[in-house]
Design brief:
Length: 86
């Protein structure tokens, strides 16, 4: 992965990519060569053209799901997050 860094190798952190799902299955090479898209307008400001209320809902919902035990798998967790009110 182009944007990988050493802390990932030892499990210290993760990056959450909020890239929309492509309209096709990416090849392994395409996945490896993807670059992250910044959600910032400048170093201190979120870009409202890129960051939407759905992004906030997904991040908050993932945290809530994890606090509840989050053992229903990624599809179940996503369904729970999207069904919750904003």
């Amino acid at each position: 992965m182009v944007t990988g860094h050493t802390s990932h190798q030892i499990g210290l952190d993760v990056d959450i990519w909020l890239t929309p799902m492509p309209d096709r299955i990416l090849t392994p090479q395409e996945r490896e060569n993807m670059t992250a898209v910044s959600m910032l307008k400048d170093p201190f400001t979120v870009d409202p053209d890129k960051w939407t209320p759905l992004h906030t809902k997904l991040i908050n919902g993932a945290q809530i799901s994890e606090n509840r035990g989050g053992n229903q798998g990624p599809v179940g967790a996503l369904q729970e997050i999207l069904a919750a009110p904003f």
